[in-house]
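Q: My labmate handed me this sequence with no annotations at all. I'd like to see what the chain might look like in three dimensions before we decide whether it's worth expressing. Could you predict it?
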Amino acid sequence: MMTNKELALSYHNNLMKNKPFGVWEHLTVDRGLSINTIIKFRLGYKDNSITIPIYNKEFDVVDIKFRHLTGKLRYTHMKGGKPEIYGWERLLKNDKFIYVEGELNRLILEDRGVPAITVSGGAGEFNKDWIPYFKDKKIWFWFDSDDTGKKGVKRVVRILDNIPKFCRNISPECLKEKEDAVDYFVKYKRSVSDLKEEIKNAKEIIVDNNNNRCKKSDIDRFIKEKDTNKEIKILNSFDFIHKTLGVDNTANPVLTICPFHKDKNPSMAIYDGTGYHCFSCGAHGDGNIDFVMKFLGFSYREAVDYLRNYYNSCYLNNIMKSSEEKNVKKTRKRNTNSA
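A: Here is what I predict for the chain of 339 residues:
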């Protein structure tokens, strides 16, 4: 039985050897891709469908996406295929890139030397496990010019919250509804120089609801206005990180496996009351709130509420129980003395 990688390669060889009528023209003319890009990304052909191998961050083929050239369904996945970031090599190495909707839109950008990523599940699909990899990234979103694309951008930005350095939106005036990056370069004959101007004019994305992404200044103000300094200090200092990662809280600092990258040797140091730092991937934070935001993909408000509930259930209940036990002992002692 062939592995996913071998299967993808067989489809690629089929495309390169036979160059099926209409398919080659679709890729090179309609989609604007060069032969080098077709080879580099191992595009293939099977049963009147273009095949696109999807790699995980370990660069194993975990899915093959089929772009059907006929029929009602435009895209399907191989059996067992799940949404995955398409462009892990960019996400892991680049500090800035375009987050686009659709694999072929990503490929036309890469074809022109523009770093880009997408998610194979479609607009708005996002796994919270990916959030730590977006830390301090500069992201320009370029989704399709339709309601699905606009909603998808807002959903992803809402999930990412304040993790990236910034999230800006590319919205070329030449594009009509449902048009995309392929139309920009192929239909409207725009160049990379034109795209650079679009990037320069891109505006910050604002999600106007209760889950708005917060800037650091917003977080600082929120702490002062909504939460007492005493409570924030408590929520940031108790041993939540130790308990979450299952490590001893008596040592200071304590070294443990970092949860933000594929860590084989302990490389994260947890400092009592001050935060954590990974000497391998650089993950860093100043307390529990920051850790929960990154680890669970929560907004600041969600992280505070989560820790407050956790603290109340695990600690305040114990304190109350301890206090009740002391009162019972005092009552017994008083009754004994009275007798």
